[in-house]
Amino acid sequence: MITAIVLIQVSAESITDAAQAIVDIDGVTEVHSCAGDADLIAMVKVSEHEELAALIPGRISKVPGVLNTDTHIAFRSYSKKDTEAAFAIGLDS
After folding, report:
1. Residue 2's Cα: distance from chain center in Å?
2. Which residues contact residue 69 at a Cβ distance below 8 angstroms, ignoring those fewer than 6 apart?
3. For 24-72, what is each residue's pLDDT tens digit?
4. Residue ranges of the domains in the chain?
5. pLDDT the model gives residue 55
6. Does the structure show a pLDDT above 90 at 89?
7. Are 38 and 4 in contact (CB under 8 A)?
8. Beta strands in the chain (DSSP E)
9. Own/partner pairs, 78-86, CB within 8 angstroms, 24+ separation
């Protein structure tokens, strides 16, 4: 599974509608509104790089109000949930 983090600049009046339209796109797992250079951050999970090539410029960039995207591909993912689960193995017995 390929994970991409997409930083999205959106016109101010379109943030809510754009966020909802983006999260409804297959492959987008979540969208966060945020402060900083990006207005929205989308988490994308796909099985092949070709899907990213179609999804980001072909779908996300075409959502009304989207001005620009900046995509970052994750090499590895780390989370507290995964770490805690690994240390809990065998504690149920």
Report:
1. 11
2. 6, 7, 8, 9, 56, 57, 60, 61
3. 999 999 999 999 999 999 999 999 999 999 999 999 999 999 999 999 9
4. 2-87
5. 96
6. no
7. no
8. 2-10, 28-33, 40-46, 66-73
9. none
Q: Which CATH number fits domain 2-87: 3.20.20.450, 3.30.110.30, 3.30.70.920, 3.40.50.2000?
A: 3.30.70.920
d(CA 34, CA 7): 10
Specify the amino acid at residue 59: R
Take residue 91 and report the two structure tokens written for it.
């504690």
Residue 19 CB partners (closer than 8 Å, separation 6+): 10, 31, 33, 40
* Helix (H) or strand (E) segment spanning residue 82: helix 80-87
Instruction: Give the number of residues written for the chain.
Output: 93
CB 20 within 8 A of CB 3: no
Determine what percent of the chain falls in helix, strand and coil, rounding each to the nearest 5: 35, 30, 30
